[in-house]
Amino acid sequence: MDQVTISEEDRRQLGLWAADCAERVLPLFEAKTPDDTRPREALEALRAFTHTGKRTARLRAASWAGLKAAGEVDDPAAAAAARAACHAAAAPYIHALATPHQAKHIHGPAVYAALARELSAGEDAAVGDEELRWAIEHAPPQVRGLIRLMPACEPGRSRLATLRHHLDSALRR
Hints:
By secondary structure, the protein is mainly α.
């Protein structure tokens, strides 16, 4: 495994982009479970990180809570939206290792947001592709730079893998 350099500004910019991606689909979760605030709290903790630069126990716990919320909701689009929030809150914990797993930490918020949007539209791939285009267009240079440090994502068979491969390829340009 190759070590890479990840600055605190890289982490902050990744966090801002990740939060923006996940917040776009958070209403899909909240419409199904309006009393469950865990994904929103994950994004609030992430926003706090982007202001302070401190990775706190609150941020880590909020990320795990968002993942648990995803597993408890009985709607695939809402679950994907909660996963987008969970992955967003986990983004600042990316390790300085050039591995496919670390690349997934970068991809997660945008890919799960695209999947959530797609599932909410009756599995209309065009809707997911459009959400991914938004994420690509709004990715800051630091996010593109981080992706270029990681191994390229291989294509896969699932829709999630297809979205991830498309995002990875586009961010490398």
